C-alpha cells in the first residue's frame, strides 16, 4: 500500500484471493486480523467476502501446548517448538511507525525489515502447521508427555476414544509431573466409564487416588466418580458410601448429603435382601 487511496483496490484484490481459497490459515486471525479487515471492507464500501474454513494456529497452539508452554506467541513457538531464533528482527510494535514513515517519505528501504519480519511469520506458520499435524496424528516420533495429554483431550472431543486412551496410557507411564498424571487418569476413567468399561474405569480411578501430593479437592473428584460407579454400576453400597464421604466440596451444597442419604437407604435395603449388594 503505497498511499492511503489505494486501500479500496487492495481490499478488492484481497477479497478475490479469499474467494479463490479453499481454506485460510492465520495466527490470531479470528480474533484480530479478520475483524480488523472486515471493518476496513465496510468502511471502504467493498463487499465483505465469505471466509472459507479458517484455521487459527494460535487457538490450536493453546490447546495442544497448554501444559508445555506458559505463552504461545509466535516467536515463542519458533524458539521452543521449531528451535528457530530470529536475529536482528524488527519488533512488531515498531512496524506501524515504520510503515507510516514510508508513506510520508516514499523510502521503500524502510520496509525491508518489515517484509523480512512478515516472511519469517509465514514460514513459521507453515512449519508449525506441520508440527501440529504430527502431534495430532501421532506421526511426530517422540512427543512430550504434556503434549500427549493435551492431544488426548482433543482426541476425546473428536470421539476417538481408542487414540485418546493410547496417549493417556503413555502419559501415565511417563516421568511427567504427578498433577498431569492425575489429569490423565481422570480423563481415561471418564472415557472408559462412557464406553461401559466400568471395571477398567475403577482401576484408573484407584490409581489416581494412589498418587501422592494431590490436593484434597482433586482427590475428592476421583472419590465422587468411584462413589457413582459403586452405587450405579456395581451396586456396592458400602464402597459407594466410603468414597462419597470423601468427596467433600465436589458437588453443589446439599447434593452430596442427598447422595449419601440415598446410598445409605440402598445399603439398608441391601442388608435386608443380601443378594442386592452384588459387589
Element layout with pairings:
Elements: H1 7-20, E1 24-26, H2 29-43, E2 54-56, H3 57-64, H4 74-82, H5 95-105, H6 112-136, H7 145-157, H8 161-173, H9 178-194, H10 198-209, H11 216-233, H12 237-244, H13 255-272
Parallel strand pairs: 1-2
Helix pairs in contact: 3-6, 4-6, 7-8, 7-9, 8-9, 9-10, 10-11, 11-12, 12-13
> Which regions have little confidence, pLDDT < 50, spanning 5+ residues?
none
Cα-based radius of gyration, to the nearest Å: 27 Å
Separation of termini? 75 Å
| Strand proportion | under 5%
The profile of the biggest β sheet is:
2 strands, parallel
Q: Let me know the average pLDDT.
A: 92
**In order across it, which strands form the biggest sheet?**
1-2
SSE order: HEHEHHHHHHHHHHH
Please give the share of residues in helix: 55-70%
Got a strand count? 2
Structure class: mainly alpha
Number of helical runs? 13
Amino acid at each position: 500500500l503505497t498511499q492511503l487511496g489505494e486501500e479500496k483496490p487492495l481490499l478488492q484484490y484481497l477479497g478475490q484471493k479469499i474467494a479463490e481459497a479453499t481454506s485460510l490459515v492465520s495466527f490470531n486471525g479470528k480474533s484480530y486480523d479478520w475483524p480488523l479487515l472486515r471493518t476496513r471492507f465496510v468502511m471502504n464500501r467493498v463487499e465483505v467476502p465469505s471466509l472459507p474454513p479458517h484455521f487459527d494456529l494460535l487457538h490450536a497452539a493453546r490447546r495442544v501446548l497448554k501444559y508445555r508452554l506458559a505463552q504461545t506467541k509466535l516467536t515463542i513457538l519458533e524458539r521452543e517448538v521449531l528451535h528457530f531464533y530470529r536475529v536482528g528482527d524488527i519488533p512488531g510494535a515498531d512496524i506501524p511507525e515504520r510503515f507510516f514513515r514510508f508513506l510520508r517519505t516514499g523510502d521503500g528501504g524502510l520496509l525491508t525489515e518489515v517484509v523480512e519480519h512478515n516472511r519469517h511469520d509465514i514460514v513459521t506458520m507453515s512449519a508449525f502447521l506441520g508440527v501440529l499435524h504430527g502431534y495430532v496424528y501421532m506421526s511426530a516420533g517422540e512427543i512430550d508427555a504434556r503434549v500427549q495429554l493435551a492431544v488426548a483431550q482433543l482426541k476425546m472431543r473428536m470421539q476417538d476414544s481408542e487414540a485418546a486412551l493410547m496417549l493417556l496410557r503413555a502419559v501415565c507411564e511417563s516421568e511427567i509431573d504427578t498433577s498431569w498424571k492425575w489429569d490423565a487418569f481422570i480423563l481415561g476413567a471418564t472415557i472408559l466409564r462412557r464406553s461401559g468399561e466400568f471395571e477398567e474405569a475403577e482401576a484408573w480411578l484407584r490409581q489416581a487416588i494412589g498418587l501422592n501430593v494431590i490436593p484434597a479437592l482433586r482427590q475428592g473428584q476421583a472419590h465422587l466418580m468411584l462413589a457413582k460407579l459403586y452405587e450405579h454400576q456395581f451396586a456396592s453400597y458400602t464402597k459407594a458410601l466410603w468414597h462419597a464421604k470423601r468427596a467433600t466440596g465436589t458437588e453443589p451444597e446439599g447434593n452430596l448429603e442427598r447422595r449419601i442419604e440415598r446410598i445409605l437407604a440402598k445399603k439398608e435395603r441391601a442388608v435386608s435382601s443380601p443378594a442386592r449388594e452384588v459387589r
